[in-house]
Amino acid sequence: MKNWKKAAAMAVTASLCITALAGCGGSSKTEEKTDSTEKKSASDNTLHYQIGVAIDSLNPQLANDGTSFSVLAQCMEGLYTKDEDGNAILAAAESVDKSDDGLTYTFKLRDDAKWSDGSDVTADDFVYAWQTLADPNTGSEYQFFVQTACLLNADDIVAGNKPVTDLGVEAVDDKTLKVTLSSPCAVFESLMTFPSFLPVKRDFAQEAGDNFATSADTILCNGAFKITDYEPSAMTIKAEKNDDYYDAGDVKLDGVEWQVILDNQTAAMSYESGDLDVVTLTGDLIEQYQDDENFSTSQDGYMWYISPNTEVKELANENIRLALAKSFDKEAVTDTLLKDGSTPADYIVAENLAVSPDGTEFRKQAGTYDNWTYDVDAAKEYWSKGLSELGIDSLELELVTEDSDSAQQVAQFLQNEWQTNLEGLTVSIKVEPKKARLEDMQNGNYQLGLTRWGPDYADPMTDLDCFITGSSTNYGRYSNTEYDDTIDSAKYGELALDTEARWNALVDCEKMLADDCVVFPIYQQSIARMISPNVSGIYFYSTGSNYSFKYAEKK
Amino acid sequence: MKKYIAKRMFVSIVTILIILLLLFCMLQFMPGSPFNDEKLSEAQVQVLNQKYGLDQPIVVQFVNYVKNVVKGDFGVSYSISKNTDISKLLNTRLPVSFRIGGQAVVFGAIIGIMLGIAAALKSGTWIDSICTIVSVLGVSLPSYVFALAMAYFLGYRANIFPLLYNSAEAFASSVMPTIALAMFSIATVARFTRTELLEVLDSDYMLLAESKGITGRTLIVRHALRNALIPIITVLAPLVVDLMIGSLVIEKIFSIPGIGSLMVTAIQSNDYNVTITIAFIYSVMYIVLMLAVDILYGVIDPRIRLAKE
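Output (structure tokens, whole complex):
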């Protein structure tokens, strides 16, 4: 026993000494290495880009957030991609033949479209990927896109009534892809730029099985860059220029490195020290940097709004809703609270989202709505009218919000504005994690909810679709037959065939939302960034993938 | 001794099972589900629940889960890294957390004990005062203050250590987080060492040892420190688990791919399997460590008898 004790004591001492020595030995190496890093980041032709969260999946059909989509979009290419202004242009397809009834698209794929293993990108790669997306067993959050794109039999496949092989997409030959729709789809081309429709090579994915897209070896790329270093929930993702890409001559960067940084201060220091070329700013840092010449903001498609639950008796009263919608200062929210370039919104279809068939931007045509503009006097009038209609003189409401800093700040500001401007109103705030807030709102278990919606494709429909009867995002249980019928016709009916009439009908739909005041828009989100002066040519977008590095340069 | 350890092991396994059950129930009560998303249809949520067996009664789920855990299968992530094996997720992150945490424990214990000894031996002098200041600062200032200060001065200004964790320079990247994490243990250990050592130095057997002619290092290390170690180990043990499992704040500041941040993300996204697995690892470490500490007591102080031999 005594010997054993002695041995144990010696082992402990020895291990302590070894650790201490290892520490000493390591520190001299450190200095050399730090030097080499410094040189590397100054001279390399790799773009170092900060992301705020880890990637949830690099499987195009499973990915579900903007960060993942954006990384995918740099490394893979679908039938269409986005130009500098975000318009859909042909990419992996070199030509398309659209039938007169708008129901058949025949794509000819580029002969020089290659995967990063040197093999051809074939029509079957699209068939496989889209069938995976439609398959209920995949569990993709973007499964509904096969319906939005009006692919033949999509509804039945989603409901589980037909096999995925019945989906309206077929490989005529290796380089010819035939897509059949159930009805004309005005947003088809825009949708095809979305990463959920990216191709996946069947053999490769099936061989990788469950490991598909979980490491650099199990991902095939056909875009400007190819992934060289990745693992699930990685903090650093590396990609290098893809020499097999047909347009490789136009790609000027040697590679891209995405770095997950959660802390704002660290992000700013990394930018200052040259470790990162582009960082996103939030909170106090915006104030600190907003006068810097490398500070820039870009409009995002996210719309933040309050959804009133119209099944709550008091909120079913239109005057009460109007009073709530008009009684908070949106400019104060964007200019004094957020300061990130976000703009006050008296509308629900995002600005710079979509242009009409004749080239008019949606907001320019639709304008703003009186029911949603800030006007305390009018709000007070509606308020007293509403209260007397309900036969009450005071009202208590609860506002549910998620636990992010900015959301809580906005909620507190609204609480204050409402209580100050509307006499007899008491608003309490309930803070919940996002998932819990969503569940409450989807179950109609709330009164007022602060929420947001990001556009999925460049068409007003992406925002307006949220308010049809029965939609899982129609939290407030708004129901208007005229609205539902118009949206339905614009998606699958007569209007879908007549682009101009469809466009005007969508403008009318937004007006219906304003007239009925079933949503209180607050602001359209912007993203504030610092971009190193030696970097140029990054395109930023407000839908789908957030940016493109294809033409980016680093001097 | 063997019998005692066997008994403790049995109790530990039962404890771990109870912890697992509790975790399971708590997650059930949490609002939301991993598939609570604006874009998933009800039909899809059903399919997903079925696929992962979440539609079954909780008892069945629990039994299945324990069966799989025994086989070493902790399941897959539902939302934060879809369909990835938990073991794969942890494979890369656990070693990073363990490394930084382990370094912090060793560093914290050594520096803490040294500071404590210095303060006790030079009690009442300026050395003692400095040690007291360090202790008070270490205990009262949160670790992120040290972390940010170091990130600014050593990382950004002086450019000695990398600001962001880089797996290619794992040691250099781990220096600042290690020190930041160790500050609290340094302070705690120093304080305890000083107090205990002062008490021991005052005792009769020290007088005896001294009068027997034992002096200098032998006197302090063999006779005084050894007796002072017991309370130090008691405070250090739970610290070890805390440090090893990683700290969210430190991980956030240095962008370290550790399990602290993974756990928080998993809880927020209701990713049941990831949450349970990390909590499970935490519990197992805690239990194993407590067992080790109990055994160590006997090694350090023969007067403590754990069981009849």
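Chain B touches chain A through 66 residues (CB under 8 Å).
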